[in-house]
Structures are given as C-alpha cells and as structure tokens.
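A.,

Following up on our hallway conversation. Structure tokens first:
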C-alpha cells in the first residue's frame, strides 16, 4: 500500500513536470518570436549577436515521460487479495492440473513423509519433557512428605538415628471381597 502511494505520487510529479516543460517551451518560442520581430531589421536575434547556429531546438520528451509515469502506475498497482480457504483439489497449484485426484494423493504422501521425518526428532524431546515433569512432581511430593513428617517429629533430626532398613507389615489390612452377592 505504501509502495503504491509513493509510486503514484512519483508518477503525478513526473506528469506535472511534463506539463510545466510544455508550458515553458511554449513561452520560450513566444519570446523568441517577439525578439525576432523586434530585431528583424538587424537580422533577428542571431544577426544582432553574430551567432552561427540560428535554430532554436527544444527536445520534447514529454510523451516518453508520460508513458514512463503510466508504466510506473501499472507496476505499482497491487490488486486486492482475499483468502479463499484451503482447497485440497488445488494442492500444489497447477503442477498436476491434468492428473485430477492424483494431486491430493501426492500431497498426502508428501505430508506423511514429512511427518515421518519430523517425528523421530520430536519424540525424544517429548519423552524427556514427560520424564522431567514426573521427576519434578515426585521430588516435590517427597519433599512435602518429609517436611510434614519432620514437623510431626516422626523423622529424627539427626541422620545417625535414621533406621537403615524400613519394614512394612500388611497383615492387618483386610482384604476386600472379590465379588458382590
């Protein structure tokens, strides 16, 4: 959008310069005619000042500049583009236009190959993230349990008093019935 505005203003400036050049050329020719009329008895401007080159030639490049300005506007114009959604039938553009549904098949195969190349890189990262999360959670729970036991004085404050082996007995736990009658 900015490029279109800048180029449009540049083209406008060129057109205005061409218009000014045409007006200046007309004024110069009119002044030359008036001077030649006033100095006609002395041979005109060139006779009066002894100038060998008696022709006044002003190149008119206005048409070329106007054409360039027009081309600048054409190049800078950007048509409005709208999103039409994803269309699997138009996959890969016009590469396989006469192959019909083969385009979708090729697109699917390319997607699957890309996925198979991408997954081996990502799976170890996912596994490592899950392990780290589980270890962090277990460590957090262990620390909370130890702090809770420390507060209730179940764990002695000195390391020398910690038993080397803990044993648990499950003999007093009732077993649930296997089925309901």
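Then the amino acids I'd put at each of the 181 positions:
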């Amino acid at each position: 959008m900015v490029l279109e505005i800048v180029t449009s203003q540049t083209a406008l400036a060129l057109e205005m310069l061409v218009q000014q050049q045409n007006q200046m050329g007309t004024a110069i020719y009119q002044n030359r005619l008036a001077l030649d009329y006033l100095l006609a008895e002395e041979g005109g401007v060139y006779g009066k000042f002894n100038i060998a080159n008696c022709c006044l030639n002003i190149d008119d490049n206005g048409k070329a500049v106007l054409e360039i300005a027009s081309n600048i506007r054409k190049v800078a114009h950007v048509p409005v583009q709208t999103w039409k959604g994803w269309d699997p039938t138009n996959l890969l553009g016009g590469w396989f236009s006469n192959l019909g549904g083969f385009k979708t098949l090729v697109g699917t195969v390319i997607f699957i190959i890309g996925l198979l190349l991408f997954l081996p890189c990502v799976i170890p990262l996912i596994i490592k993230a899950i392990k780290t999360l589980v270890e962090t959670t277990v460590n957090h729970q262990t620390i909370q349990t130890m702090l809770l036991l420390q507060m209730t004085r179940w764990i002695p404050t000195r390391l020398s008093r910690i038993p080397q082996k803990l044993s648990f007995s499950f003999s007093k736990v009732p077993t649930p019935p296997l089925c309901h009658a």
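Residues 20 and 159 are 100 Å apart (CA to CA). Curious whether your intuition agrees with the design.

B.
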